[in-house]
Amino acid sequence: DIVCRIGRLNDIGFVWDPLEEQWKEKYQRLIAFQTRENNSTLVFHDYDQDPELGQWVEKQRVLYGEFARMGDDVEALKESIRRAFDTSTYAAEGENGRTVETMASRISRLNSIGFVWDPPLVGDDQWMEKYQKLRAYVKEFDSVLVPYDYSAAPGLGNWVSQQRRSYKWKTLSKEQIFLLESIGFVWDASV
Question: Cα angle vertex 115, ends 185, 96, to 5°?
Fold first, then answer.
């Protein structure tokens, strides 16, 4: 009789693991963001258009950091994940979804879409402002080759050239390189 009950619950779409469903829903929202934002997964914790998504993305980064630091110490990792969730809305929802295996699977799924684990530092506001202008340019013109005299964003063409020089001199951070490459940045404009 229990099998029939389970079958009926499955037939009506019963959610057996609410935490996992919440994670999947946020993951889908991140993919929608990525589609809208020209292949970028760079969502900041204070993202105005979807604050809940921004907070979720930040939580993934925190958990990833904990996961990476713990290495093979599974018990310490489980405790760290439990503590990280205790400060969130998930605290009252039991231990579902907090296993090391689940976390590893989630990290793998996020990696598969190019998730940005270490976003540029807050101190890089000027760089990010220019990057956002470049993203807008790419969205409008489908090109990263900004002319020097582009009047809608004065100085953007020079900034793009500076990024090429910085890349050549190896002074860009890996996060900056990732962000530029995520919008199809051309490192050698002479080609």
Answer: 170
Using the 8-state DSSP alphabet, how is residue 153 labeled?
A: S
C-alpha 11/C-alpha 18 separation (Å) is: 17
The answer to whether the Cα torsion of 161, 125, 144, 43 is positive or negative is positive
Tens-digit pLDDT profile for residues 34-52:
888 766 777 766 667 788 8
* Domain residue extents for the chain: 2-112, 122-182
Sign of torsion over alpha carbons 170, 171, 173, 179: negative
Q: Is the Cα dihedral 27, 30, 36, 40 positive or negative? A: negative
Q: How many residues does the chain have?
A: 191
Task: Give CA–CA dist 113/35, Å, rounded.
Answer: 11
